[in-house]
Specification:
single chain, two-stranded antiparallel ribbon, 3 helices, globular, two-stranded parallel ribbon, alpha+beta
Length: 97
């Protein structure tokens, strides 16, 4: 089982921290008041979660923190997996953008 901290399992603390970080990002990017934005916290590996979310999408947009000078290293493993397996077109936005 998971270790407990006080009355709350560590898993609950991790989930709350993730929710807080997600709320902070949404507020920072000015997305909180947009009707067309749905914010969802998912407990999964990133690539499968993104591909599931893109099942009925017209476009999947992912960020990339890929480093390196070789073409194969420019995309991270998550963005590369999405480009290869997504059911729709994929736009990869580098972190420097």
């Amino acid at each position: 089982g998971l270790a407990s901290v006080g009355a709350f399992p560590a898993r609950d603390l991790i989930e709350q921290s993730a929710r807080d970080r997600l709320d902070e990002l949404v507020a920072t990017e000015g997305l909180a008041d947009r009707d067309h934005v749905t914010v969802t916290l998912v407990e999964s590996s990133p690539a499968p979660a993104l591909l599931d979310a893109a099942a009925d999408a017209d476009l999947l947009v992912v960020g990339s923190r890929g480093h390196g000078g070789f073409a194969g290293m420019l995309l991270g493993s998550v963005s590369q997996h999405c480009v290869t397996h997504a059911p729709c077109p994929v736009v990869v936005v580098p972190a420097s953008a």
